[in-house]
Every structure is written in structure tokens, then in C-alpha cells.
Automatic annotation (TrEMBL):
Transmembrane segments: none annotated. SUPFAM superfamilies: Prokaryotic lipoproteins and lipoprotein localization factors (SSF89392). Residues 1-22 form the signal peptide. The keyword Signal applies. Keywords: Lipoprotein, Signal. It comes from the Bacteria. The keyword Cytoplasm does not apply. Pfam families: LolA. It comes from Gimibacter soli. This is Outer membrane lipoprotein carrier protein LolA.
Length: 227
């Protein structure tokens, strides 16, 4: 099995792979959208509404690593600061953000690697703040000319080593101001891209607190290193 999971924490398929080109386009800054009839202004207000109304999420996911390896599983999210990626099959990894740090748990070698959430691109997804303008995010109302899609792109100009994230939403049919989170594309400082696509997302489910914990594999025998 290719070990393509370390880039996930530094960079963590979008809705469809053709959308990747949209990340390269210059996205108009939020401050330029000042009128309600402006489609970009309407799009970023819809995104802020989504974050404001979404406290938790449960979904299937498909992840495309920079190596081309494809994995899948279940993802759970609770804002602020909590996310869990449970990989299906025999993948010996677990990714858990516990409200303070993002943890990569490698049960094969018995190792835990931690990053502060604010030092990862996922801070846009997991943060308490929904003020996209303050976060320096940019919005595109119809990337690739697809009117169904809204994209949000974020990059910390002062810390380029953190990489970039582009989050993709789909407008709900008949309710253009209501969005569904479809996935995200993350590019790290080495231009390595990781794509995550969400499947059958459920909004605001009740999630057990134990999801944000994990068995620490350090010190366990290899025989006992299971998730």
C-alpha cells in the first residue's frame, strides 16, 4: 500500500476532477462584492449562512491522494475544531481533530503526529468564525461556468507553507441560496493536491463525543495496534 497520507495533514476528489482548474483562476476578493444583486455577494452570503447553520456533519468520503491512490470511508465533523476520518478496509490510519489539534494516527508503526488546527487548511472548515472576509477567503459563484457550484478559496498570505484550500458547494435545486457541501481540494506548499469528495452528507446529526478520541498506539504491541 502506498503511504500517501502524510500530505493529508499538511494539505488535506472535489466534486469532480474538472473543477480543479477553477482553483487556478483568480477569484474576486469578497470586498469587491458590495451589492445584493452581485452573484458573488449572493454566493458568499449563502456560504456564510451554510457555516452559520451547520454545527455538525456526517458523510461518506472518497479521497484522492497526490500519488493517485484512492481511499474511502466515513467522515464526521463538529464545529468548531472537530473532525474524524474513518478509513474503510485495512487502511491502518485514523485522522482525528479533537478541538485543539489535528492528529494523524498510524497504527502500523505506532505513531501519532499532531498539528494545531490553525496551522492546517482545514481551519476554514472547522473554525468558529464564519466571517469569510476576515479570513481572507475568496468566492467564485460559478467556477468552470457551472451555475450549480459555488467555490470558496482560502490562502494565508503570511504563511504560504500552509498551502491552500478550495471548498466546493452545490446549490440545492429550486433553492439557489441553500448550499450542500460537496468536497474540497487542498494544495500544499509543494503543489501536491489532495481531493476529498463527500457522499450522502447528513447535516447536524447528533455525534458521540468518543468520535474525537482515539486509542494511542504508542507503546502498544504491533499485535494490538487496531483502530
Amino acid at each position: 500500500m502506498k503511504r500517501a497520507f502524510a500530505p493529508l495533514l499538511l494539505s488535506l476528489s472535489v466534486f469532480f476532477s474538472g473543477m480543479a482548474a477553477a482553483q487556478e483562476a483568480e477569484l474576486p476578493p469578497l470586498e469587491e462584492a458590495t451589492m445584493e444583486e452581485d452573484p458573488i455577494f449572493a454566493a458568499f452570503k449563502a456560504v456564510e449562512r451554510y457555516f452559520r447553520e451547520t454545527q455538525s456533519l456526517k458523510a461518506g468520503f472518497v479521497q484522492h491522494a497526490p500519488s493517485g491512490e484512492i481511499t474511502s470511508g466515513m467522515v464526521y465533523m463538529a464545529r468548531p475544531g472537530r473532525i474524524r476520518f474513518d478509513y474503510a478496509g485495512d487502511v491502518p490510519f485514523l485522522v482525528v481533530a479533537d478541538g485543539e489539534a489535528l492528529n494523524l494516527i498510524d497504527y502500523e508503526v505506532g505513531q501519532v503526529t499532531r498539528w494545531p488546527i490553525d496551522d492546517t487548511p482545514l481551519r476554514l472548515l472547522l473554525g468558529r468564525d464564519v466571517d469569510l472576509a476576515r479570513l481572507g477567503a475568496q468566492v467564485q459563484a460559478a467556477p468552470g461556468g457551472d451555475e450549480r457550484i459555488v467555490a470558496v478559496h482560502a490562502r494565508d498570505e503570511n504563511r504560504p507553507e500552509l498551502g491552500t484550500i478550495t471548498i466546493f458547494f452545490e446549490r440545492r435545486a429550486g433553492e439557489p441560496d441553500t448550499l450542500t457541501l460537496k468536497g474540497w481540494l487542498v494544495k500544499d506548499a509543494q503543489a501536491q493536491e489532495t481531493y476529498v469528495e463527500l457522499v450522502d452528507a447528513i447535516l447536524n446529526p447528533e455525534l458521540e463525543k468518543k468520535l474525537w478520541t482515539f486509542e494511542d498506539p504508542r507503546g502498544l504491541s504491533k499485535r494490538r495496534r487496531t483502530r
